[in-house]
Amino acid sequence: MDVKIIPVSGCIQIFLGVATFGVAPLAGWINERKWPRSVDEQGLTTRGGARVAWDEFTEIKRVITRIGQTSNTTEHYEVSGSKGKVVVAPYRLENGAQVFDYIWRRLPERLKEPQR
Fold this sequence. Notes:
- The chain has helices spanning 10-19, 23-32, 96-106, 109-112, and strands at 36-39, 43-46, 51-53, 57-66, 73-81, 84-88.
- By secondary structure, it is α+β, with helices and mostly antiparallel strands.
- The longest helix is centred in the C-terminal third of the chain and has 11 residues, at 96-106.
């Protein structure tokens, strides 16, 4: 299954690009290289081209970020293994809940146990 990212508004991209002299769009692109490009029965491929088998993952972490000083939050998951970290942000992916569910069902059971 191919994983598609919901693009950030062009107006916001332009504003961030101008306000940060191009650093924000570049940082976003570098960060998205850790996101999944495709998932299948054997594993996933990141946007940076790394292929990771499901049994190579060693940890999953839920990350909740508060936006500014508001009560608004975002949530994403970081799945780590010997080949690095893969970021799964359902709110930024088309059919994000389905993509995360697909990934969750294929991760090793030992990762799904509550962390101590």
